[in-house]
Amino acid sequence: MKKIAFLLDGIGNRRHYLQFKILKKHGFTPYALIFEEYLKDAHTLQDLARFHPLPFKRNEVLRNFSFKFLKYFIDFVKKEKIKAVLTHRWRFLRYSILTKLFYPELKIIYHIVVGGTLKHPGRRLFFRLFKNKIDCILVNSLALKNELVATGLVKPEEVKLLYSSFDLEDFPENLSKDEARKMLNLPEQAFLFGMVAKFRPEKRQIDLIKAFHLIHKEIPKAMVVFVGDGPVKNDCEALVKELSLEEKIIFVGKVKQEMVPFYLRAFDVLVHTSIKEGMPLAVLEGLAVGLPIIATDAEGVPDIFATKEPIGYLVPKGDVKAIAEALKKIYYLPKNEFELLGKNAKKRFLTAFSPEIFEKRTIEIFSRFF
Predict the structure, then answer these.
(1) Residue 39 sits in a domain of what CATH number?
(2) Sequence-ordered list of residues with C-beta below 8 angstroms from that of 94, at least 6 positions apart, any chain
(3) What is the residue-level pLDDT of the chain in tens, covering all 370 positions?
(4) Do 323 and 181 sit in the same domain of this protein?
(5) What is the number of domains present in the chain?
(6) Whole-angstrom Cα distance, residue 198 to residue 220?
(7) Cα Rg for the chain, rounded, in angstroms?
(8) Would you say the pTM of this structure is higher than 0.70?
(9) How far is residue 22 CA from its own chain's centroid?
């Protein structure tokens, strides 16, 4: 059997779920290895992959090196006859490489999804010594590929590009914007800028709030809708109150993933103001429903805008004034130009990031090892 183990930090994301589905379709057997504290949320994986709970807590394995986990993983790989392992975490990569010393036929796929992986000198030394044990290096953006090549540790041809994607089965085809707004109790006549992201410092929702404050009086029908939760949400809510924008900015909070497409249908524009980003699925989801995009140029985002047909505005990360100008500019676009951005966005998704393209690339990559 073509068995592939995915070492996951958490329960994975929509990219993983689509990958599991694709691999099963093509005769592979994906295993999802999950730490015990995430088991309560892992029910969605059980139909997608062969579910394998790990009898370890995350910090036991990833905060410090665990010989106990290494032995467990070596025994697991041998017992289950695992042919390949995929991970996007550096510390999981170390365990995989050490396992290969005892089980040489194991293939290792290292999928890098965020920048700075080889920034630390110790990591660069380890990578230099054991790079020959890695059978495939994947990245999800040209920025990450260029970053790796710039270290001098890999050649361009050694790094494969695999853009992220997701399953479209939860995206309602015939739901109008008006219907979505009624369903979600959102203002029906407003021009809605929406952002879908966890409230973490690097997502910089606070920059969008500041930018909107600069020009909100010039765009009277505009409002901002934030979907998500996280550690800096309270700070953002406090700033909104301080700036007296409570009537203009809505905090929806955390919603189930299957509800996100409905919010996207309700938006006029998707905004993404992150300063650190691999390949943001939220932006790809915006493309998929045909939304114009305003996004900052963090890591993989410029790849999304790498098209001759305009899809919105790419602005410098952290530049509040540039974000504000983009909000104002897109608000006042003539209707035909605005609608063209949405059409181009949908086309961009279908030609570069669709599930069909992701499926083809995934099978090309994994089939090399079987």
Answers:
(1) 3.40.50.2000
(2) 65, 126
(3) 899 999 999 888 889 999 999 999 999 999 999 998 888 877 777 788 998 999 999 999 999 999 999 999 999 999 999 999 999 999 999 999 999 999 999 999 999 998 889 999 999 999 999 999 999 999 999 999 999 999 999 999 999 999 999 999 888 888 999 999 999 999 999 999 999 999 999 999 999 999 999 999 999 999 999 999 999 999 999 999 999 999 999 999 999 988 999 999 999 999 999 998 888 999 999 999 999 999 999 989 999 999 999 999 999 999 999 999 999 999 999 999 999 999 999 999 999 999 999 999 999 999 998 8
(4) yes
(5) 2
(6) 27
(7) 22
(8) yes
(9) 18
User: Closest Cα partner for 240 from 220, 219, 210, 204?
Assistant: 210
Range of the domain at 334: 177-353
Which residues are within 8 A (CB) of 268 and not within 5 positions of it... i.e. 6 or more apart? 177, 191, 192, 193, 194, 291, 292
